[in-house]
Structure formats: C-alpha cells, structure tokens
Amino acid sequence: MQIQKEDMEINEDIVIVGAGIAGLATSLALHRLGVRSIVLESSESLRTTGFALALWTNAWRALDALGVGDSLRQRSLRFTRFQAFSADSGLPTAEISLEANMKPVDYDSRCIKRQEIVETLEKELPPGTIKYSSRVVSIEESGLVKLVHLADKTVLRTKVLIGCDGVNSKVAKWMGLPKPVDANRSAIRGYVVYPEAHGFEPKFCAYFGGVRFGFLPCDDKSLYWFCTFTPSAVDYDEKIEGSPTKMKQFVLSLASNVSKEAYNILERSSLDSLYCAKLKLRAPWDILKRDNIVKNNTCLVGDALHPMTPDIGQGGCSALEDSIVLARCISEAIFLRKSIKVEKLEEGDDELYTRIKVGLEKYAKERRWRIFSLISTSYLVGLAQESNGKVISYLREKFLAQFTIETMLRMGDFNCGKLLK
C-alpha cells in the first residue's frame, strides 16, 4: 500500500489552483520569466462562461506586460466617453471625455468578453500547463511542502501554492482567511449580440440612483449590461433567480426611467444570457494582516484574495495587477535578483524555500494597501450610488456622478510594472 501511495504523488515546484483570469495570468507571467508552474482546474475544459468586464488602464498595462494586450485590443472598442444619468429621472448628470489631455499617455478603457481573455491567455501557455478535471479536495502541510489532494486520489507535493480559485476559495479557507462578507446588494448581468452592427457609440453609460444600470459596447455587434440593486429597497423575491423570465421582468420593472435605447437593450436580452448573484467583498481590514495574503509559502490572487463590489470596475483589473507583481517577486527570489534580500540562513534551512518566502512577503507588502484602497473605495462609491433619500439624491445628481467617474479613472491609473528577466 505504501508503494501505491508514493506512485500517486507528483512533485511540482509551483501549483496554481484555478484556471480563471487570475490563475492563467499568474501562470503566464511566471512563464514569461522562465518559471514553470501548473494550473489545476476542476472543470473538464477551459471555463469560458461569464459575460464581459470593463478593463481600465491598469489592466491594459498588465496585459501588455503579459504580451497579449495588442491581440485583445483588436477585438474590442476603446471608450471615448463616460456618461452618467440619474436612475430616478433619467436625465444626464455628468459626462467626461476619455480622450482629454489630462489622461495618461497610455490611457485605455474597454469592455471585453471574458471568453476572449481566458482563451487568449490559455493559448500563450505551454501545452500541458493546465490540468483539467483536477478538483482540490484538501490541503495539508508536510514540513516545507504542501500536499494538495485531488479528487482522483493524486497528491501534488509543492513548494509554492497559489490560490486563484475565486470568492469561495479552498486555498483561502485552508489559510484561515475569514469568509467574504455580504454587501447586502445583488447584481443581474446580461449580454446582447446583434446580427448586424448595433450602432452604439463606444461610450460607457451608467445610471446612478436607488438602482444602478450600466451599458458598455464590447465590439461592433455586442453589448454588456449590468444592474445592481439593494434587495431590501426594491420589491425583490429571491425565487426569481430560478426563472430567467421573471428575472428579466424584474430588471425591466426597475428600468422605467432609463432611455428608450437602454431599455431596448434590456428587452432584447435573451433569457439564457441573464445571470444573478449576490455581491460579496473581503473586509478591507483583513487585507492589512500579512498572514491573510501570504502564509507558509502559500498566497492568494484575484477574487480568492480580494473580492470587491463592482462599483469602480476593478475586480478583474486588480487580479491582473496581482499576477504581474507576484510573478516578478517569485522570479526575483528564484533567480536571486538584488531586490530580494535574505538574511543569514540558519543551519538546516532550505535556501530556495526561504528565498521564495521573502519574495512572497514582498508581494504581500506591495499589494496590501493597494487592495485595501480598492475594496474600500468600491464599497463606498457603491453605497453613495445606490443610497436613497432626498439629500443623497441631490448630492448624487449634482456632484457624485462626476466624482464617481473621476474616481474610476484615478483608481485605474496604476502601473504594476513590467516583467523583466
């Protein structure tokens, strides 16, 4: 029996759990730096479900560092304007040109299909990097290595474990990180494909009020839309989540004050394109604890580390930032870059393990306050956008819409740096 157990064990230096955007980007960033990793994915094939996401300047800088930015730009439209409306009256409240001279030289913002992103990242990885049908059932520590137990009885022995497995991360749970908290809000998302060109301008339109709507063109034929709301503030029955027909009727009932063209987008949405989910976030103060980001050469990336509300559009963008910073820190540790300083090793210490530990701690230090500010800002912006009351409604229409747009642009103007060998 002992021989059989050993035959089931496989040694891998770096194991990444989850083949979503975060996991694929992290593996590709490591690959660009000459560091091998494997990615465990529980599904039988690449998960291309999901709709689209807005990517701001920081995300495109990260994608350029990965070497896939130009390819993705060819399949998306660059926003030229951001326009805000009141969800209560339907009237415009603010508008910003996204081509103004004050923007960064490399400013970019686009909405792109999730499928396009994951397929592009996957194609750049060496064959065999992703191990499909590899569901993690448990993790344990054995000296300096982690034992990752899979459903098929395979056991992976790894020096570095990276959790990219989303909001309900098994890796985060094993590390002891508190569960994400409920934001007391929900979101319904949809996607519309036109047989011919839809004719909409390449601009981001958003309606702020007790309910928040947004409409973003992805390319010449498709648009992505979202609706976020506070269930307790509207006539919402959770049972509609099992009925796409009722879900669509609910969204249309909330959209009485949006423009006719926006309403037509919602009405045109096919039932199989609708998705509803409760919004969750990581309590921002949990991010300030180093052991909640990195622990015993285990770390987290993307939603596994920092789920946040979508109010400034930084969930996917920040995951891409994480991947670049983490890969750079690991590479510096492995190849003894000068920026990774290791104190004198004690007798019996594993030098590589210790160097990587220092590298991961550097990653935690670099990301901690950036992530804290993203989670906090997103939550507060969402609270202001959807709160009711005469005073907050007046402030929102006069000041908050413009403030929200400027905040989204400011938080998106972040440079995670390049990948340098």
From TrEMBL:
Entry keyword set: Monooxygenase, Oxidoreductase
| Record GO terms (molecular function) | FAD binding; monooxygenase activity
**Which InterPro entries does the annotation name?**
FAD-bd, FAD/NAD-bd_sf, MOase
The record's listing under SUPFAM superfamilies reads:
FAD/NAD(P)-binding domain (SSF51905)
Domain of life of the organism encoding this protein: Eukaryota
Looking up Gene3D superfamilies in the UniProt record yields: FAD/NAD(P)-binding domain (3.50.50.60)
Cite the FAD-binding domain residue spans from the record.
13-333
Keyword Repeat applies: no
**Which family is this protein grouped under?**
Belongs to the 3-hydroxybenzoate 6-hydroxylase family.
Descriptive protein name: FAD-binding domain-containing protein
Lineage per the UniProt record? Eukaryota, Viridiplantae, Streptophyta, Embryophyta, Tracheophyta
